[in-house]
Recover the amino acids of this structure.
C-alpha cells in the first residue's frame, strides 16, 4: 500500500467550530481512516449536508461539495453512480439526515449504494443555535422544547437496519482511535454503511457531555456477532446506563451499482454516448 502524506488533506482555511466541539474528533478520525486505508485524496469525494458539520468542507483537502439541507445522500449516490471508482462519503447531521433528509436516508438504505454515511448525532440543530433534532432524547430541554422533548427519538442505527441497510455502527467523537477504526471498516464495507457518531455539543447541550458518554459507553468485543440481526436489534436500542459502540450489524448484499443496468458496461463517465439510442429514447416522449 502506497503511503499517503497527511499534509495532502490539509487546507489553509482556519477552523471555526466552537472550542471543544465534537466535530473536531470526527474530522480527525475521518482523515485518519482515509490515511489508514491508503486512499489517494483525488479518489475521495465527501458530500456534506447543511449544519455545523458542513463547515468541514473547508478543511478537508479532497473533492467535496456542501449540498442543500437534507440532500447530501442522494447527491452522494449520484456521484457514486457516475464514477464507481471513487470512495464516496456523506457527512451529515442528525437534523440534516433524520429530519429534512429522512426520506432520502430511507430509500438510500433500501437501494444499498456503496457509500458511507457519517451521522453527526448531537441531538440538536447546532448551526441554528440549539433546537431539538430528531435524535433528541425524550425529556431533553432545548430552545424549541422548553418543557422537554415529548416524542420518541429517531435511532439512526435502527432506522438503517429496518429499511434494509447492510452496515450499521455507532461510535463516539471523544474516542478518535475507535471512531477512526469504525469509519475505516464502514468505508471498506461493500454497500450502504452508516456510522452513528455520538457527538457532544458543548455550546447547546450541557447534559450529554464527553463525561456523560464516557460513563455509559462500552465497546462490543470479538464475542459479539454482528451478523445476527436479532441480537443487533437488541443492541441498537440499548441507551441509558449502558450504550454499546462498534459495528452493530453487517451483512453482504448486491449493491445498487452492481444491479443497475446503466452500469453494465462500466462507470457512466467512461461510456460513449450512443446517439441512435438517445434518439430512440427521446422519441418515446415526443
Amino acid at each position: 500500500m502506497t503511503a499517503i502524506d497527511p499534509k495532502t488533506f490539509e487546507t489553509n482555511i482556519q477552523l471555526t467550530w466552537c472550542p471543544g466541539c465534537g466535530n473536531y474528533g470526527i474530522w480527525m478520525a475521518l482523515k485518519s481512516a482515509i490515511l489508514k486505508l491508503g486512499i489517494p485524496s483525488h479518489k475521495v469525494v465527501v458530500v456534506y449536508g447543511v449544519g455545523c458539520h458542513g463547515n468541514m468542507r473547508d478543511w478537508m483537502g479532497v473533492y467535496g461539495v456542501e449540498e442543500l439541507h437534507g440532500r447530501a445522500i442522494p447527491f452522494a449516490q449520484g456521484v457514486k453512480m457516475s464514477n464507481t471508482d471513487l470512495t464516496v462519503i456523506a457527512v451529515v447531521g442528525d437534523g440534516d439526515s433524520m429530519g429534512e433528509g429522512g426520506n432520502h436516508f430511507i430509500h438510500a438504505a433500501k437501494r444499498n449504494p456503496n457509500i458511507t454515511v457519517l451521522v453527526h448525532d448531537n441531538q440538536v440543530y447546532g448551526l441554528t443555535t440549539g433546537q431539538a433534532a430528531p435524535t433528541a432524547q425524550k425529556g431533553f430541554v432545548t430552545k424549541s422544547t422548553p418543557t422537554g422533548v415529548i416524542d420518541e427519538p429517531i435511532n439512526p442505527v435502527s432506522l438503517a437496519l429496518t429499511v434494509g441497510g447492510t452496515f450499521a455502527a455507532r461510535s463516539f467523537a471523544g474516542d478518535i482511535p475507535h471512531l477512526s477504526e469504525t469509519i475505516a471498516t464502514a468505508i471498506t464495507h461493500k454497500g450502504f454503511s452508516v456510522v452513528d457518531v455520538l457527538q457532544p455539543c458543548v455550546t447547546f447541550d450541557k447534559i450529554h457531555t464527553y463525561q456523560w458518554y464516557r460513563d455509559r459507553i462500552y465497546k462490543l468485543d470479538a464475542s459479539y456477532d454482528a451478523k445476527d440481526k436479532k441480537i443487533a436489534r437488541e443492541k441498537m436500542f440499548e441507551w441509558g446506563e449502558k450504550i454499546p459502540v462498534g459495528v452493530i450489524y453487517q451483512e453482504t448484499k448486491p449493491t445498487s451499482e452492481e444491479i443497475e443496468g446503466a452500469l453494465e458496461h462500466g462507470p457512466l463517465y467512461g461510456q460513449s454516448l450512443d446517439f441512435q439510442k438517445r434518439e430512440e429514447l427521446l422519441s418515446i416522449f415526443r
Notes: The longest strand covers residues 243-250.
